[in-house]
Amino acid sequence: MDWLDQVKWDSAGLVPVIAQEQATGDVLMFAWMDREALRKTAELGRAVYFSRSRQRLWFKGEESGHVQQVHEIRLDCDGDVLLLKVTQLGHDPSIACHTGRHSCFFRRQEGGRWVGVEPVLKNPSEIYT
Amino acid sequence: MDWLDQVKWDSAGLVPVIAQEQATGDVLMFAWMDREALRKTAELGRAVYFSRSRQRLWFKGEESGHVQQVHEIRLDCDGDVLLLKVTQLGHDPSIACHTGRHSCFFRRQEGGRWVGVEPVLKNPSEIYT
Q: What pTM does this model have?
């Protein structure tokens, strides 16, 4: 059985994907893949997602240069969630978020408020030129 | 504005949630929350998810004893994904997966196959008695 068929794609043909930085363990971002995105990711060794807003393959870094090199692809117990172990390329320190931050998860709940706790490392207007 | 209203709940009133072990950085599992689950999680300092299969609140550990103590709740840039930093209680070494493994992400893609790379730490029949 094809390994791609062992993934339980949802009704839209997608699965959730978590990208984790291999060297630090930091959770960088969350996105989606369709079958073609996963096949390409494995083939190229770089993260290829499916953009739900644009309804097309999204080669992570195609605009920003912030490409993710993929070391491992993991599948969860239910077969319906993927975890990538990546090296986040293109900037040092690494930037995964379109806001210019290291991680997309930069807001922390504190006393009933969401508080930004990670700095912008590069202005998005300089990333997306 | 209520911090719960700043979360972008999907059409089913849910958001995806990633649980990460604070001490190790390991990604343990992926689940969903509704508004009430998130409110309870913050109030109790333990992970409460929404079970889509049972369509009710799921107090993680309610059957297994594998409760998750929650240290941080993070929100992503788009406001539609949560990240919990947790301590996984109930067994040493810690078990988050219903299969008795440390993490749900125990299968790795290797040469076109999914290969299990994490041991069962406790037999599920002994966990769910």
A: 0.98
